[in-house]
Amino acid sequence: MTSACATVETAGSPLLALEELRVSFSRGRIEAVKGVSLALRRGEVLALVGESGSGKSVTAKSLLGLTRYTGGTVTGGRALWHGGNDTVTDLLALPEARLERLRGDRIAMIFQEPMTSLNPVLTIGYQLTESAIRHHGLSRAQADARALEALEQVRMSDPAKRLGQFPHELSGGMRQRVMIAMALMCRPDLLIADEPTTALDVTVQAEILALLKTIQRESGMAVLFITHDMGVVAEIADRVAVMLAGEIIEEGSVGQVFAAPRRDYTRQLLDAAPKLGTAPVAPVRHPDPGAAALSVRNLRVRFPMRSGLLRRVTSELHAVEDVSFDVAARETLAIVGESGCGKSTTAKAILRLIEADSGEILLDGRDICALPHHELKRARRGLQMVFQDPYASLNPRMRIFDTVAEPFRIHSSQKPRQLRATVLELLERVGLSPEMANRFPHQFSGGQRQRIAIARALALRPRVIIADEPVSALDVSIQAQILELLREVQDEFNIALLFISHDMGVVEKVSDRIAVMHMGEIVEIGPRDAVLSDPRHSYTRRLLDAVPVAHPELRRVRDADTRTVGSPVFAPGAREPSAPLEPVRDGHFVRPDAG
């Protein structure tokens, strides 16, 4: 490598200049980044976009010396950092000790998956204050005060309480907010944000984007924003660089790239992004409750919260309150809402992965809540689930053939030859070749793993599939493929689909009806077009207003939201029953709203 530091005149120089970066893996056999050059100035937001495997994250991690921990080697190029005092430092040539002084202080990074980035055995407060104490020499009290301020900035509910909690006690959205607060603790010059809003709800995403823009304007901080969501790019970026197979194939201002993309790949990314308001008008369906594949009636799930030396129940978390809906065969009902609203708890209660306090769950008219264990096992053949993270839901030690064959081995007794033919047929149906059957999950891409999860869900020909955020972790082009696959198998196998999501563009594309959940309740439900074009509840309107507009010319100036976040925690017996849903028109219902 070249000398780590050189003194030059830097008037007008960018904060960071990346020159011909090359990064290889597997002892040089795989070149992940091929001669990437970028420049980033103070106060600028540069969006680095592309699909998984394009080299975006490797490029960013190499700046902080993190690729060396995953088997990567920087084989060429320079990363010139203007650190003040008219000096330029080549980050790629710095020894680890000097790079550590920059990491977390002048250059901070927000990672995509907060659960793997946060230490599970340390409190949130300890992890937040660590960098401020180390880099800025703050006392514990000063660092705690700054940590509390940072959590308030990212709109964390009950921030003082969160300081003493551990990562597993927070939702995914809350953990990501902690990561963002941690990155901002030392007020860095450069923030590298690697898919920071992928797992967040649209309202929280809008607030985080507004927060980052506000902090960036006030501090002059530069942001390298890595994403595959072109709506987010249009919302936040000043310039865009598009990566494909380790190379920058197009770069320009956000207006230029969106208005006149020069490369076909860029146009494909723009076309694949779900855009609210572009789906064709859906026919209004009126499901017959008597013929519904799945009916939920007055479902309620509450979790007791204990405190004190004797661990007495002092309050209750009202996760699901009086939820009712029907889903017919070949119909898709989408449940939308923010993290913690009760969407996933509803799904788990339907599958009886958690027990409901009261209510009925009717599968083809049979109440599965009343079934004993041995009968519930048979009933579950008709209810299957596709989870958000296919890698976490597939056994890493099982070959794909065994993963898809497992439901047959549990619920039926097919002969080996017949079982093999059935499994291979299922894999082909979801777009995978029979030769892939003997591979393990880590040998597949994210989209392929989700296809495997769908094949497993289809194995027993279920009446209902519950899809819990099935495409939120996928690239936009892969999202489109998975959504099309779900639509095809739904029609082919006569399946009712309960689709849980926070992405309103995806919901519009896939749903027949929409149910909006807030604080454990359905506050609005009706035909897709009625809910999206004529939302009657203030919470529904807030969800729709928060959706990024996928064109920079229509970008709205957003301020960080300072609204008070409600809590679903109540003293035992303290919550009054809400007013019932009232009809609007043509199958559209809304709960009375104070606005």
Describe what you observe in this structure.
- This protein has 595 residues and is α/β, with parallel strands linked by helices.
- It folds into two domains: 5-272, P-loop containing nucleotide triphosphate hydrolases (Rossmann fold); 291-590, Rossmann fold (3-Layer(aba) Sandwich), CATH 3.40.50.
- The chain contains 21 helices and 24 strands.
- Strands 17-18-19-14-20-21-24-23 form an eight-stranded mixed β-sheet, sandwiched between helices.
- 46% of the residues are buried.
Short account of what is shown:
It contains 21 helices and 24 strands. It has 595 residues and is α/β, with parallel strands linked by helices.
How are the SSEs placed, and which strands pair?
Blueprint: E1 5-7, E2 16-25, E3 30-40, E4 45-49, H1 56-63, E5 73-82, E6 87-90, H2 96-102, E7 107-110, H3 114-117, H4 124-136, H5 140-153, H6 159-162, H7 172-184, E8 190-194, H8 202-219, E9 222-227, H9 230-236, E10 239-244, E11 247-253, H10 254-259, H11 264-272, E12 294-307, E13 312-327, E14 332-336, H12 343-350, E15 358-363, E16 366-367, H13 373-379, E17 383-386, H14 390-393, H15 400-411, H16 416-429, H17 446-458, E18 464-468, H18 476-493, E19 496-501, H19 504-510, E20 513-518, E21 521-527, H20 528-533, H21 538-545, E22 569-570, E23 582-585, E24 588-590
Parallel strand pairs: 4-9, 4-10, 7-8, 8-9, 14-19, 14-20, 17-18, 18-19
Antiparallel strand pairs: 1-6, 2-3, 2-5, 5-6, 10-11, 12-13, 12-15, 13-22, 15-16, 20-21, 21-24, 23-24
Helix pairs in contact: 4-5, 4-7, 5-7, 15-16, 15-17, 16-17, 17-18
